[in-house]
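Could someone model NAP with this protein?
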Amino acid sequence: MRILVLGGGWFLGRAVVSGALERGWEVTTFTRGLSGIPVPGAVAVHGDRERPEDLARLADHGPWDAVIDTSASELSPHVVRSGTRTLEPVVGRYVYVSTVAVYEGWPTEPLNTCSPVWAALTSTRPDTTQPPDSASGINPDYGRRKAGTEHAVTETFGLARTSLLRPGVILGPGEYVGRLPWWLHRTERGGLILAPGDPARRFQAVDVRDVATFALDQVVHVGHQVHNLGTPIGRETMGGFLQACMDVTGSTGELLWVEDEILLRHGLRQWTELPLWWIHPGVSVIDSSSAVAAGFHSRPLAETVTDTWHWLSQGNTPVPHRRRAKHGITPAKEQAILDSVH
Ligand SMILES: NC(=O)c1ccc[n+]([C@@H]2O[C@H](COP(=O)([O-])OP(=O)(O)OC[C@H]3O[C@@H](n4cnc5c(N)ncnc54)[C@H](OP(=O)(O)O)[C@@H]3O)[C@@H](O)[C@H]2O)c1
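Reply:
Sure, complex below.
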């Protein structure tokens, strides 16, 4: 099998490349060469998806049985369409890693693959620098743009040659945003630890390696595939997540659970200031049953936490990324909230 991975330098793309090489497949990666490190064993082609001449040069390295697209999180639909048109003659199947944010109901309603998707933003580049609403953490622009990129893929390749994969939040070794790494470092530091909301709240992150394995399996599927990717609804909880962080770091600290209303009164930004704390009722109610029927397996969250800690403990650090700076509460603010309730 010969595949092209758009991305491949970090996190999901890197996991896809490693998995493909383990299967004995030939892999070409395409990145700008700005971030991450090419995986040894893959042919690394450098260029920018926003430059048509770079895409034309990439196409000369084909043909491939499939492309797995992991690098379109910040691209607009017209850039993705330009790439799909250039690659279509030299690629058999397009496996596109999208997001649950394409659903209109995200993150306020339970979702399955029949849920309504945003009407696609198809024209010009949207204002991607516009931050999500700071209180709620919701950014519908992102969902609309990703819906537009899905449309660009299916429009060019046709439904029968496309897989659309819609993961919820992805965690695991190599995570660069700093969500799970932040909690691991915080629990390691110990002391009284501000734990957000209800320990019984559902928690539904998916392991990067499980997304990668499923994306690779999609290469050999036939017909149009659309799947959500998350752990089974209700299997994991916020309490279980933080306890796993405490256990693996050998924390001597103590979790103090503080109600959502109090955190909101203190003006805490959801999703980023206490990473992964999001109170919307649909956040962890993503139905992935179609993926499970197609062979998707999601490992226990405790394994994701443990392996990420081992990855960090080996001296690995997340790739510097501007989104990382937004994550984490200052010790002074955490202490002020703890003082107000303790
Ligand atoms: N992370 C999550 O929690 C999450 C959740 C749901 C869905 N997703 C989706 O999963 C996919 C993978 O996400 P990710 O967070 O692993 O990676 P990402 O940030 O979307 O992609 C980064 C990779 O793409 C390359 N890249 C970026 N812009 C490029 C350009 N213009 N031309 C060529 N290469 C470019 C980067 O390398 P260079 O910088 O060297 O170019 C890097 O290897 C995305 O489509 C994202 O929307 C992610």
